[in-house]
Amino acid sequence: MSRVGVVTFPGSLDDRDALRAVKLAGAEPVSLWHRDKDLKQVDAVVLPGGFSYGDYLRCGAIARFSPIMELIIEGAKQGLPVLGICNGFQILCESHLLPGALTRNDHLHFICRDQKLRIENASTAWTADYTQGQEITVPLKNGEGGYVADERTLDMLEAEGRVVARYLELNPNGSRRDIAGITNEAGNVVGLMPHPEHAVEPLTGPTTEGLGFFTSILKQLVKA
Amino acid sequence: MTLDTVKNAEQTPDTALPWAELGLKPDEYERITGILGRRPTGAELAMYSVMWSEHCSYKSSKVHLRQFGEKAPASSAMLVGIGENAGVVDVGQGYAVTFKVESHNHPSYIEPYQGAATGVGGIVRDILAMGARPVAVMDPLRFGDPDEADTKRVAHGVVAGIGGYGNCLGLPNIGGEVVFDPCYQGNPLVNALCVGVMRHEDIHLAKASGPGNKVILYGARTGGDGIGGVSVLASETFESTGPTKRPAVQVGDPFQEKLLIECTLEIFREKLVVGIQDLGGAGLSCATSELASAGTGGMRIELDTVPLRDATLSPEEILMSESQERMCAVVEPHNVDRFLEICEKWDVIATVIGEVTDGDRLEIFWHGEQIVDVPPRTVAHEGPVYERPYARPQWQDALQADDANRLPRPENADELRDAVLRLVASPNQASKSWITAQYDKYVLGNTVLAQPEDSGMVRIDEETNLGVAVATDGNGRYAKLDPYAGAQLALAEAYRNVAATGARPLAVSDCLNFGSPEDPGVMWQFAEATRGLADACQVLGTPVTGGNVSLYNQTGETAIHPTPVVAVLGVIDDVTRRTPMAFAEEGQLIYLLGETREEFGGSAWSQVAHGHLGGLPPKVDLEREKLLAEILISGSRDGMIDAAHDLSDGGLVQALVESCLKGGNGARIVIPEGADPFVALFSESAGRAVVSVPRSEELRFTDMCRARGLAATRIGVVDGDALEVQGQFSITLAALREAYEGTIPALLG
């Protein structure tokens, strides 16, 4: 069975939810601890939402230097699939696995809402189960979710098809070009501000349309 | 300043101490010297003053609160009752649930963000200290006049503080209330509730037993924040002209609290503690004296071992400090190493600061010299008790005689239509989603229902789908008209809200927000409200498991409306059977359950249309409430109803608007024959709900209502994209939405 690790940093909040989503998708969830010095033979890693290390200094800035991140950064460069959700996305940017940064929401409030998205790139390791242009609704909850990068980087992301998901109907945080998620050049590292792990059960989520991120990776791993 | 040791106190009996400045009355100070047989040391005085404050000792309210125990209905569900950090209720399948609502009113007016944030932090630690994993929070809030500029300052800070702390803690915020009224202008009410879940065998209590066991303080370092906060803030009314008391409010660090939660839960899992207590109001004074008082022996503390944020703090200040995110545990010596190891794993500072002794004194030392030597019970549990005089205010008769049923009413269909739009656009009746969207309701992945649903509901077992529901309600306007009935109406509404979602009400927690107990009129309100609540709990079979009293909510001579806020906890065996409030399916039949009388006293309509408060609140009929709840629960369990929404402030029309907008479907309503349309739509008679029934279930449902004797009137059908009251008016959902959703962002955004 494919093993998908979920890292718990001090201050991680949606780690159990990510573990649940991995399980519901049919993979074996594996808890990873920020101080771990090995990846326990996982085939992919999720960096969950939350406020790692209290988000002191800058969101994700301290987590990036934790022992486990050294292994994950190394692994990602070798092709290890990594999905960063919310705080995880911030950590991926701080780690320079993804370009740009996440800034305070333009309206200055934390926002929790059911957010409509369009999958712009259905060929990454984490989105292959979606169809190109598919519209999904998943929860979004963040205080610092505004994606920013310089114009040249934004143009490059667009040109290379590296915008993974875009906000529809309402841009909830002032993200440039309505960007909700991006990927690296190889397509194995994806950062996403909304929370697909909270849209995996009809009982507790607005939809189950977030499950695709977790089934995508499973299929990818089975194929490999 | 030289150290005021016990020896020094014995040798200098005539030294004057600032007991009056610390809020103690002359007879209280005399009592302390009587207990000790000498003058207290500075440290002892600090402890007594803070522990004997209204906030910690409940000295004015105690005699009335006793009724909650004396009149408590026999309930097999009750595992831990009043007196512990929070009550614990059996919800079946080996699970126990603990919940409590508490106030953080005064700090939230002075420093809205930190006041509200630490209110969340404090109640979460109370729940944690019982051995439970906190699983959800809720916040009943009351602010002043929405048109006053200061209301915006307070509301912004409070909402941001609750979000800032709760969101960072990873606890879903699943409900609560937001009410505006000028009576709360200088005294906003910030109540906070937390629910926690544990297995029966994991219940922990705050007591220190077993001589030789170690006392471990863990969590944040102790700093200068909140010193005297409890006694200063809760014992007197603050005047805006006085010196600033800002530093008295504690500052919260939710990240530290999150670590404390995970660390503590891991310690519980390994069964490493004998007793545990959180540090809240009165800090170490409270934790050490309560632990020792509830245990079998004494306690010895080396106060100089406490890790400090500010090395210049005096021992008295360390005892008084209300620095947040701290806990105190009693641990057997052979478990200490493992305890410290787990704290180290979570980067939580932990220090052995003392031990349980075989004596009967609480003894505190500072660098080897004794500064406290007291019988712990006299500090923690045997504080002063007052039988404050109370009397029905003279104005009460005139207020009740000012009958709201005589106010001018809408006279034609157009005026009725306008009244609906004005009602749903009024700040108290309008959508609060601008506020609740700033709270994370999804984290932990078990939220089944959240605001604006009738109650918040979380799943507690992913295999069996066992869940709990909680609702909080209070109506200060009703309670002002009749505090006895007002408290009962608050309970009835919360009870009804829990049942409306399909859960069976089990237990109650209350937060009693009132003015000064030194005013006999306020004390009468308090006595009436507690009597009403205790009587109603007896009838409904839902015991009070704990709660909190907040007094001195007044500015000058003017007290807030008496505001008992009542939380009801219910259990649901299968959360997939929950009943939401939305009219989700066209064609379903709308039934009104219960009877409507002409009742406008304290109503939302009387406030919105006339700025009026007078008359009598709606009649309370608790037997009808029980019957209604049974019908709602059976209807949910047996799949007979697809939506349910309780009727309360704003009456039938408010409930219809909310259920229509939530589901995105309109409704065609027929006013029952012979009924006055205005009364039918706007009256606030209690004991009512609207439900939507699939046509296939209609017969079964009405048969059940008839057999049990509950009035069920078919009033319409879910249909179209407007709320149409036949023969009267039709308002499109778009127009309703604009009215309902536009108000709060315009006021606060």
UniProtKB/TrEMBL annotation, chain A:
<keyword id="KW-0436">Ligase</keyword>
<keyword id="KW-0547">Nucleotide-binding</keyword>
<keyword id="KW-0963">Cytoplasm</keyword>
<comment type="subunit">
    <text>Part of the FGAM synthase complex composed of 1 PurL, 1 PurQ and 2 PurS subunits.</text>
</comment>
<protein>
    <recommendedName>
        <fullName>Phosphoribosylformylglycinamidine synthase subunit PurQ</fullName>
        <ecNumber>6.3.5.3</ecNumber>
        <ecNumber>3.5.1.2</ecNumber>
    </recommendedName>
</protein>
<comment type="function">
    <text>Part of the phosphoribosylformylglycinamidine synthase complex involved in the purines biosynthetic pathway. Catalyzes the ATP-dependent conversion of formylglycinamide ribonucleotide (FGAR) and glutamine to yield formylglycinamidine ribonucleotide (FGAM) and glutamate. The FGAM synthase complex is composed of three subunits. PurQ produces an ammonia molecule by converting glutamine to glutamate. PurL transfers the ammonia molecule to FGAR to form FGAM in an ATP-dependent manner.</text>
</comment>
<comment type="pathway">
    <text>Purine metabolism; IMP biosynthesis via de novo pathway; 5-amino-1-(5-phospho-D-ribosyl)imidazole from N(2)-formyl-N(1)-(5-phospho-D-ribosyl)glycinamide: step 1/2.</text>
</comment>
<keyword id="KW-0658">Purine biosynthesis</keyword>
<dbReference type="InterPro" id="IPR029062">
    <property type="entry name" value="Class_I_gatase-like"/>
</dbReference>
<keyword id="KW-0378">Hydrolase</keyword>
<keyword id="KW-0315">Glutamine amidotransferase</keyword>
<feature type="active site" description="Nucleophile">
    <location>
        <position position="86"/>
    </location>
</feature>
<dbReference type="InterPro" id="IPR010075">
    <property type="entry name" value="PRibForGlyAmidine_synth_PurQ"/>
</dbReference>
<feature type="active site">
    <location>
        <position position="197"/>
    </location>
</feature>
<feature type="active site">
    <location>
        <position position="195"/>
    </location>
</feature>
<dbReference type="Pfam" id="PF13507">
    <property type="entry name" value="GATase_5"/>
</dbReference>
<keyword id="KW-0067">ATP-binding</keyword>
UniProtKB/TrEMBL annotation, chain B:
<feature type="active site" description="Proton acceptor">
    <location>
        <position position="104"/>
    </location>
</feature>
<dbReference type="Pfam" id="PF00586">
    <property type="entry name" value="AIRS"/>
</dbReference>
<dbReference type="InterPro" id="IPR036676">
    <property type="entry name" value="PurM-like_C_sf"/>
</dbReference>
<feature type="binding site">
    <location>
        <position position="250"/>
    </location>
    <ligand>
        <name>substrate</name>
    </ligand>
</feature>
<feature type="binding site">
    <location>
        <begin position="103"/>
        <end position="106"/>
    </location>
    <ligand>
        <name>substrate</name>
    </ligand>
</feature>
<feature type="binding site">
    <location>
        <position position="126"/>
    </location>
    <ligand>
        <name>Mg(2+) 2</name>
    </ligand>
</feature>
<comment type="similarity">
    <text>Belongs to the FGAMS family.</text>
</comment>
<feature type="domain" description="PurM-like N-terminal">
    <location>
        <begin position="453"/>
        <end position="572"/>
    </location>
</feature>
<feature type="domain" description="PurM-like N-terminal">
    <location>
        <begin position="83"/>
        <end position="198"/>
    </location>
</feature>
<keyword id="KW-0067">ATP-binding</keyword>
<feature type="domain" description="PurM-like C-terminal">
    <location>
        <begin position="585"/>
        <end position="722"/>
    </location>
</feature>
<feature type="domain" description="PurM-like C-terminal">
    <location>
        <begin position="210"/>
        <end position="366"/>
    </location>
</feature>
<feature type="binding site">
    <location>
        <position position="125"/>
    </location>
    <ligand>
        <name>substrate</name>
    </ligand>
</feature>
<keyword id="KW-0436">Ligase</keyword>
<comment type="function">
    <text>Part of the phosphoribosylformylglycinamidine synthase complex involved in the purines biosynthetic pathway. Catalyzes the ATP-dependent conversion of formylglycinamide ribonucleotide (FGAR) and glutamine to yield formylglycinamidine ribonucleotide (FGAM) and glutamate. The FGAM synthase complex is composed of three subunits. PurQ produces an ammonia molecule by converting glutamine to glutamate. PurL transfers the ammonia molecule to FGAR to form FGAM in an ATP-dependent manner.</text>
</comment>
<feature type="binding site">
    <location>
        <position position="100"/>
    </location>
    <ligand>
        <name>ATP</name>
    </ligand>
</feature>
<dbReference type="Pfam" id="PF02769">
    <property type="entry name" value="AIRS_C"/>
</dbReference>
<feature type="binding site">
    <location>
        <position position="547"/>
    </location>
    <ligand>
        <name>ATP</name>
    </ligand>
</feature>
<dbReference type="InterPro" id="IPR041609">
    <property type="entry name" value="PurL_linker"/>
</dbReference>
<feature type="binding site">
    <location>
        <position position="102"/>
    </location>
    <ligand>
        <name>Mg(2+) 1</name>
    </ligand>
</feature>
<keyword id="KW-0460">Magnesium</keyword>
<keyword id="KW-0547">Nucleotide-binding</keyword>
